[in-house]
């Protein structure tokens, strides 16, 4: 299905329509590395289609007040003609920080959500707006790649795995207007999708506990209830990936717990007439069946019948992985030579083994512990710094 994804074209007429939109970027900040924060703000200034306004909310950071970055940004934003606000509020979580930005931007037609370590490619804003030329499109996901992809092998493999998931799984969903999760580092929404659901967004609970994570998938669910959710593969954003295994596992468990909660909400609130409803149901069916087949081939048959798994099982997954991984090479980076990206592509067997073993265990552990709804990272400051990239 991912071959059916179509990239919209920018015509003069469409350009005029999109230029008339008021685009606001929401930037929640909590214990972020100042270098990454400044890098992201600089990327807003270099956009081919600048945002109309940028709203930064420091969510009670304990690692610093970003005074130097704030002074620099306010000066440069004024020079660039970008309206901006910078608030420091008591810690309430990412969603509440975003809400502070929403409340001071009543004129916005489109909200672009990002993370405090997001760095937009020069055409990111221009490209992420393109699908909105279709009135039914309610949200647009960008493509996220690692800023620090050459720091170590963990980041390389994570970058490969993450990009391929976006350009295969999510591209397939986008082909039918049913992207299920927009990535936090770069996503765009029609303003009413967020405004009309703000109270629900800020007060989500699961099993009586407030949900602090999975904000991006909840906003995507709101968009799915109204229309189409798509991906724009030419809207590129860089972000800092975990450089330590402990950081990676906490991030992945947060994703899996959020995915489980969101699955419950999709079955409850999405109409069966929506493609996303059935794609979601098929995904769970596929996951359960795959788990049963793997257990049968690797555990039951060897122990009960003395039969080893077929040799094809050790070959076919890697061939499929390499074929799908070719889409990773379609992302051209000005800061990296193709031979370096090819080297990352060659690590596909490592990514597959990781997905079949450790990540499979973490996925099920996350499902069974989904009631743990805390964020889990950055309590003691930034875990990735620009100096290490």
UniProtKB/TrEMBL annotation:
It catalyses: N-acetyl-beta-D-glucosaminyl-(1->4)-[hyaluronan](n) + UDP-alpha-D-glucuronate = [hyaluronan](n+1) + UDP + H(+); [hyaluronan](n) + UDP-N-acetyl-alpha-D-glucosamine = N-acetyl-beta-D-glucosaminyl-(1->4)-[hyaluronan](n) + UDP + H(+). PANTHER family: HYALURONAN SYNTHASE, MANNURONAN SYNTHASE. One of its GO terms (cellular component) is plasma membrane. GO terms for molecular function: hyaluronan synthase activity. It is an enzyme of class 2 (transferase). Its EC number is 2.4.1.212. Pathway: Glycan biosynthesis; hyaluronan biosynthesis. InterPro entries: Glyco_trans_2-like, Nucleotide-diphossugar_trans. This is Hyaluronan synthase. It holds the Pfam family Glycos_transf_2. The chain crosses the membrane at residues 276-300, 312-330, 342-359. Belongs to the NodC/HAS family. Glycosaminoglycan synthesis. The hyaluronic acid capsule is involved in the pathogenicity of group A Streptococci; it may be the major virulence determinant. Residues 24-194 form the Glycosyltransferase 2-like domain. One of its GO terms (biological process) is extracellular matrix assembly. Keywords: Cell membrane, Glycosyltransferase, Membrane, Transferase, Transmembrane, Transmembrane helix. It is found in: Cell membrane.
């Amino acid at each position: 299905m991912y071959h059916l994804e179509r990239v919209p074209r920018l015509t003069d007429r469409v350009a005029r329509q999109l230029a008339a939109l008021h685009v606001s970027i929401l930037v929640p900040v909590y214990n972020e590395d100042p270098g990454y924060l400044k890098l992201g703000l600089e990327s807003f200034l270099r956009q081919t289609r600048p945002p109309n306004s940028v709203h930064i909310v420091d969510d009670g950071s304990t690692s610093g007040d970003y005074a130097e970055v704030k002074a620099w940004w306010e000066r440069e934003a004024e020079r660039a003609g970008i309206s901006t606000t910078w608030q420091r509020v008591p810690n309430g979580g990412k969603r509440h920080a975003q809400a502070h930005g929403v409340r001071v931007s009543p004129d916005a037609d489109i909200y672009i959500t990002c993370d405090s370590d997001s760095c937009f490619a020069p055409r990111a804003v221009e490209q992420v707006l393109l699908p909105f030329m279709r009135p039914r499109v309610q949200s647009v996901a960008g493509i996220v790649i690692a800023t620090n992809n050459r720091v170590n092998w963990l980041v390389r493999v994570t970058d490969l795995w993450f990009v391929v998931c976006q350009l295969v799984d999510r591209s397939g969903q986008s082909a039918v207007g049913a992207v299920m999760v927009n990535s936090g580092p770069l996503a765009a929404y029609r303003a009413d999708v967020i405004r009309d659901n703000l109270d629900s967004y800020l007060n989500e609970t699961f099993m009586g506990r407030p949900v602090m994570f999975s904000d991006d998938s909840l906003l995507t669910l709101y968009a799915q209830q109204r229309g189409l959710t798509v991906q724009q593969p030419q809207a590129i954003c860089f972000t800092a990936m975990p450089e330590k295994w402990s950081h990676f596992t906490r991030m992945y468990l947060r994703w899996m717990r959020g995915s489980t909660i969101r699955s419950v909400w999709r079955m409850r609130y999405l109409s069966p007439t929506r493609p996303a409803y059935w794609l979601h149901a098929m995904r769970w069916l596929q996951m359960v069946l795959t788990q049963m087949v793997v257990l049968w081939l690797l555990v039951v048959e060897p122990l009960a019948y003395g039969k080893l798994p077929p040799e094809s099982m050790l070959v076919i997954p890697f061939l499929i992985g390499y074929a799908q991984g070719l889409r990773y090479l379609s992302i051209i980076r000005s800061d990296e030579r193709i031979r370096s990206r090819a080297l990352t592509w060659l690590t596909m067997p490592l990514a597959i083994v990781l997905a079949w073993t450790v990540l499979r265990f973490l996925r099920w552990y996350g499902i069974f512990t989904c009631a743990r709804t805390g964020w889990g990272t950055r309590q003691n400051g930034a875990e990735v710094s620009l100096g290490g990239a």
